[in-house]
Design brief:
Rubrerythrin, domain 2; binds s-citryldethia Coenzyme A; 3-stranded antiparallel β-sheet; mainly alpha; Citrate Synthase, domain 1
Length: 431
């Protein structure tokens, strides 16, 4: 098994160590390359660069494999629930009954937000983007809970269990608060009920009538959040690690991750998929016309919910959610024409050379919006739902960065292609 790679630069050989991951993936360790040769590696967008060693999630994009701490996503989707999977991702093992009970209790005890934080909502226009509101209010948690956000890894890690449970629980509560605020409705207070049931209560209970969760809805919401819980070094998770590497506390690092997730190429895609399906429906198209326009290469006419920076095969989460769509909508007696359009688009794309040759398959966002809409969650909140789901993954990655004994701040290099040295020209001599 190769333990070194030889790189010859200007006739001089450099021996670079080869690292091997648990699943046999190989990496060339170039940490000494610049010091020894003056060369840096160039990898725009880091698509071929390992920024860290991590023990949380394994992704095999060619074979459509996703595992959290070794457990296949298919088994977790079938047998686990969001809070249990969150515990697994954060702490590395499935919880025993006491650990699961204590974790849930901690989240329920800290589900409410400081009443002063409600003033931050008031500072936003009613139609403010939900992800913008979520970022700001999550960021404010560092100010409201300063003892948990000291920007000192040792003290912040000493309170990690409480901070992690608070973060997941309050992000859930804040998302529901954003919905209530945007619709001019009074805020609800959390109850002593399971995580997803509490979310639905916080969202939909009215002063005159409590929301009653039916098991199918609670199970579907658990599945959606569980499937978003972590996904290796995606854009938002890498952002959390980057910000955390500066010593920033967990709340601040999570706010940065929420910013990264808000982009349409990342977490914003589930909203874009629904807007795409609705447009196709409103134009009386069955998807045939749209598929042709999606092949133009125009970034503004992409088949949203298709393609992935890592998967060159079916995103296993998309397969699970696609199946769950039928089950959930049938159980709820919902007929959604957008689901039929989505299926037609998928069927057409999976037979089309343009998509097959580029290995473009449905990703997690292609069907997730249809289930969330069936649960009564408005499209405007879809990306914030992704943030709730991804919070355990972000937290686990922040903890890996904070726990590194010799943690280094993330500081990539570049290839400078700007002007060479030139002298200042006084204004009088400029034309
Ligand atoms: C998520 O990283 C993660 O793990 C992310 C995520 C997670 O859980 O954190 O999985 C969540 O972000 C899923 C992805 C959600 N985004 C979308 O669904 C938006 C639509 N998809 C794309 O824009 C695109 O596929 C990306 C951004 C997801 C991936 O882009 P890449 O890998 O950089 O691919 P690319 O832009 O280089 O495209 C390669 C080719 C191009 O054509 P050519 O230039 O070769 O002719 O494929 C084409 C692209 O034009 N292409 C598409 C397409 N996606 C890529 N063409 C039509 N429709 C698409 N969706």
């Amino acid at each position: 098994m190769a333990t070194t790679a030889t790189l010859t630069l200007e006739g001089k050989p450099y021996e670079l160590p080869v690292m091997t991951g648990t699943e046999g993936e190989k990496a060339i360790d170039v940490r000494q390359l610049r010091k020894e040769s003056g060369y840096v590696c160039y990898d725009q967008g880091y698509g071929n660069t390992g920024s860290c060693e991590s023990q949380i999630t394994y992704l095999d994009g060619d074979n459509g494999i996703l595992r959290h701490r070794g457990y296949p996503i298919e088994q977790l989707a079938e047998q686990s629930e969001f809070v249990e999977t969150a515990y697994l991702i954060i702490y590395g093992d499935l919880p025993n009954p006491k650990e699961r009970r204590d974790f849930g209790d901690l989240m329920r005890q800290h589900a409410a937000i400081d009443t002063q934080m409600l003033r931050i909502f008031e500072g936003f226009p009613r139609e403010a983007p939900p992800m913008g509101m979520l970022t700001s209010i999550v960021s404010s948690m560092a100010a409201y809970y300063p003892s948990l956000a000291t920007n000192n890894f040792e003290s912040d890690l000493a309170n990690f269990d409480l901070t992690a449970a608070m973060a997941i629980s309050k992000i859930r509560t804040i998302v529901a608060g954003v919905y209530r605020y945007r619709h001019g409705m009074p805020f609800n207070y959390p109850k002593d009920i399971p995580f997803c049931d509490n979310f639905l209560h916080l969202m939909f209970s009215e002063p005159y009538k409590d929301y009653v969760t039916i098991p199918e809805v609670s199970r579907a919401l658990n599945l959606i959040l569980l499937l978003h819980a972590d996904h290796e070094q995606n854009c938002s998770t890498s952002t959390v690690r980057m910000v955390g590497s500066s010593g920033a506390n967990l709340f601040t690092s999570l706010a940065a991750g929420i910013c990264a997730l808000s982009g349409p190429l990342h977490g914003g895609a589930n909203t874009a998929v629904m807007q795409m399906l609705q447009t196709i429906h409103d134009e009386g198209d069955d998807g045939t016309r749209f598929i042709e326009s999606a092949k133009s290469g125009d970034k503004n006419h992409r088949l949203m919910g298709f393609g992935h920076a890592v998967y060159r095969n079916y995103d296993p989460r998309a397969r699970i959610i696609g199946h769950a769509c039928d089950v959930v909508l049938n159980k709820l007696g919902i007929v959604d024409p957008l689901l039929d359009i989505a299926k037609k688009l998928e069927e057409a794309a999976l037979k089309d050379e343009y998509f097959l040759s580029r290995k473009l398959y449905p990703n997690v966002d292609f069907y997730s919006g249809i289930i969330m809409r069936a649960l009564g969650i408005p499209t405007e909140l879809f990306t914030t739902m992704f943030a709730i789901g991804r919070s355990p993954g972000w937290i686990a990655n922040w903890k890996e960065v904070a726990s590194q004994p010799k943690g280094r701040i993330y500081r990539p290099r570049q290839l400078y292609t700007g002007p060479v040295k030139r002298d200042y020209v006084p204004m009088a001599r400029r034309h």
